[in-house]
């Protein structure tokens, strides 16, 4: 196996500092792997190899002078296509934006580079970051490295695929409907969805947009929990507007696993999961119990999960509608006018959510605030919550343009495609941090991840628990076809 390609960024940075390998050598190693493997997986969709080589050379020269740029000094990495990188296209997979060339780097990318990273390319996305798969008319389809006939997830599916295939040292994605967490699960890597708005979003948006989107966050995908924590330290904190007044100080993990009270949510009627998913949550729960933690399989926050999901659907589709071209929004508005009062079909719910008046949105947002306070009370009693991440492991590509007709097979029964968003939305709607830890393959040889949830601002607690799980159980396994 190519140990170098599949090392985590923390290890790679240490190798560079110890002069076991130069930044330029490591960059060329990843570029050669992209050249070899990218045609079949279609992960890296645009590169800046020349610029990256120049920076890697400068990194090596600085190190020779005894200078360190930071904890990622010289580490080659990629970012999701939706991040601005000066001189590269930022299309969000939308043909209307194929000629949109970024003029400056996103704030997150600036901070990663200030910490020493060498960004050499960008990875594929679904159009408008709006699918659980990763394909578009500009760049085509990306496959899951563990089985190219299956999805790597979306919308940061290819960020996860690049990690699983050993094409990059580190990745940055984004998440509004599980777009970091679902791909981490499907591809068998680590992913972290931060507490909302603690990592600055500026530069991860369509042209001209500066307002952070509701629910949406940016965050890392990696091959270790240590890398997740490192990125949080580098990128987290106030954007320039707030720098004079506040500083992010996430609480450090204060308890060992042996002292924790952990709630376990194995399944739910709103989105039943395949047996293999709940079994893997149970495996992580058993690790915690064996380490001395107290488990509670009945503990739930004080709200109806179905109502929470309805609130999430409304706020999600409302936020996503802001990304639609004007003509598409007008169609949705016209469709809303023709709905009957009693129509509660999926299309009707999405249509109403996508065309909310502010008064309607404000009422739903108030309900969301009640959810947040319910979670706040819940996490006074419990340190963490364990849940499935998705209803199945990675599913076969399905590009039916009518998403309402797509189905997933769960425990040998067909289920609605969008049902899988429940587990991401359960925590995402309330701005909670969630870490996905890989737990190894299922009986099909496909990865399974488990979602670790904490209270708002408890990001480092969920990440540290993921590290402890991985240290005991393992879980990250490089994709077999890409190991050499």
Number of strands: 15
**What global shape is seen?**
globular
| Superfamily (CATH H level) name of the domain at 9-255 and 461-482 | Amidase signature (AS) domain
Spatial extent as radius of gyration: 21 Å
Give the strand content. Answer: 5-15%
Account of the protein in words:
- The chain is an alpha/beta fold and 484 residues long.
- Among the domains are: 9-255 and 461-482, Amidase signature (AS) enzymes (Alpha-Beta Complex), CATH 3.90.1300.10; 305-365, no CATH class.
- It is 37% helix and 14% strand.
- The protein is built from 14 helices and 15 strands.
- It has helices at residues 9-17, 23-41, 49-64, 107-114, 157-164, 181-187, 225-235, 275-290, 305-321, 326-337, 346-353, 358-381, 422-428, 459-473, and strands spanning 44-47, 76-80, 118-123, 135-136, 140-141, 171-175, 190-193, 217-222, 261-264, 294-296, 384-388, 407-410, 413-416, 434-441, 447-453.
- The protein has an 11-stranded mixed β-sheet with strand order 1-3-2-6-8-7-14-15-11-9-10, sandwiched between helices. The chain has a two-stranded antiparallel ribbon with strand order 4-5. It has a two-stranded antiparallel sheet with strand order 12-13.
- It starts with 8 loop residues before the first helix and ends in an 11-residue tail after the last helix.
- The model has no long low-confidence stretch (mean pLDDT 97).
